[in-house]
Design brief:
This protein has 171 residues and is mainly α. Helices cover 70% and strands 4% of the residues. The chain has a single domain, classed as Four Helix Bundle (Hemerythrin (Met), subunit A), CATH 1.20.120. The structure holds heme C.
Length: 171
């Protein structure tokens, strides 16, 4: 009976009640789209790793994920992390690269993206790095105030995910 009621509800639901998708379309080559969405799914995993680390009270681990997998130049940082480079060495390497080549715009996927999306991407990296800073400055034992600050910074990062998703879609 329930099933029939549900089927009925679905058929009579006016189609207009579904909102039109008025997000800005970003047209990219299909292999770029696949790479982009794969990176996005990775970001959801990163959020999961961060929340798991926070639930274990491991603020350093949460900061590590945010900085190396979501911060500025995270793709390069991840490669260097996998090569066994230490955080300080990576920081120094990234600084040298920036001085030599300028900020990483115009290369990689960025060159297919509209400026507004790239800018939101920068905001996202900035929010993630801010979270990393807040999380890594927590002393042991953490205070309720520390937790509050850490979750505020995390929420500010997720805000940027949401803002970008409600503005753009890729095709
Ligand atoms: C600068 C813009 C931007 C930011 C920041 C951003 N995303 Fe996305 N994300 C997109 C776009 C555009 C899509 C494609 C949406 C579409 O076409 O419907 C997407 C798609 C996704 C998808 C779907 C992937 C798939 O396989 O279809 C997931 C999951 C996702 N994002 C997670 C995240 C998470 C988690 C964050 C933050 C930690 C984040 N994104 C931050 C732009 C962004």
């Amino acid at each position: 009976m329930k099933k029939i009621a549900m089927a009925l509800a679905l058929t009579v639901l006016p189609i207009q009640s579904v909102h039109a998708d008025d997000r800005q379309v970003v047209n990219v080559p299909s292999e770029i789209k696949a790479m982009f969405l794969e990176e996005m799914r990775g970001h959801l995993d990163n959020l999961n790793e961060i929340t798991l680390a926070l639930s274990a009270g491991d603020f350093e681990a949460a900061a590590f994920v945010a900085k190396n997998k979501m911060g500025f130049g995270h793709s390069m940082r991840e490669i260097l992390v996998n090569q066994g480079m230490h955080e300080a060495e990576i920081d120094a390497f990234m600084k040298r690269m920036r001085e030599k080549h300028g900020p990483g715009q115009g290369r990689g996927m960025g060159r297919f993206m509209p400026e507004e999306l790239t800018m939101m991407g920068q905001e996202f990296h900035m929010a993630a790095e801010n979270f990393a800073e807040v999380a890594s400055s927590v002393q042991s034992p953490p205070t309720p105030e520390d937790y509050k600050n850490v979750f505020t910074a995390l929420s500010e990062t997720i805000d940027v995910c949401s803002a970008c998703h409600s503005t753009f879609r890729v095709e």
